[in-house]
Fold:
Amino acid sequence: MRLAKLGFCHGILMTIFSSPAFAQGDVAEGAEIARESCVECHNVEPDGPFKEHPPSFAAIAVYRSDEQVYGRIMFPPLHAAMPAIGYLLTPDNVEHLVVYIRSLEAR
Ligand code: HEC
Structure:
């Protein structure tokens, strides 16, 4: 309940500040996209290990917020081996991915 409420407030705040709202993201769709577009380099499964390079999505879920995950998909750090893959995805699909990755924290 508490989480649902937080998510709701978060959605409103995000809308007000016109940042991406992740409330529309779909976990199942995100998982599908991850297995198509990200699995070449990342472990994208719920039980992915820590201390891996590149990090597994399950590990990222633990130490990154929604906004940080979004930021690193859209704007990978300069000189990182992570491709600027966000530009090849639709905004909806980026949102699905953020929601999928973050959902792995709870597992
Ligand atoms: C060609 C290999 C490659 C592909 C494909 C790839 N990544 Fe990455 N990704 C990396 C590498 C390498 C890093 C670590 C970059 C660094 O050293 O900061 C990374 C980092 C990240 C991070 C930040 C991790 C962190 O906390 O620093 C996120 C989020 C991420 N990738 C998401 C994705 C998603 C989502 C996809 C699929 C749409 C994807 N990546 C596809 C190689 C890849």
The pocket of heme C is lined by residues 37-38, 40-42, 54-55, 60, 64, 69, 72-73, 77, 80-83, 85, 97 (CB under 6 Å). Residues 11-16 have pLDDT under 50 and may be disordered. The two ends are 18 Å apart (CA to CA). The CA atoms of residues 11 and 20 lie 9 Å apart.
